[in-house]
């Protein structure tokens, strides 16, 4: 049985550029993104440093051995269903047993969110817009 996938609608980087997310070791980082997060490898480059472009739901991210600090970067992913997103990650082998859903407000929008820290140190927040009844 295949679990229905959540859709990533938008991605906002914590720093300046989601196409230059720093990783210490690209080869060790890629399996988490392709296996757990469900991205596909689009391209690789060795110039000016080792890097890869990955894509899911029309959203591209760039991972790069660019000397940046991964613990200070990542992205916020707006998803269509945050609970389905967590269930999908678990089905893909994500080891966190229980989601720690939280509510956060940015501007006028309230979000239901959970966080994932990749083995490379990058942090990702998955969020669904909360519609008030």
UniProtKB/TrEMBL annotation:
Signal peptide annotation: none
Record-linked Pfam families: Glyoxalase
InterPro entries: Glyas_Bleomycin-R_OHBP_Dase, Glyas_Fos-R_dOase_dom, VOC_core
Domain VOC: 15-129
Coiled coil location: none
Protein name: VOC family protein
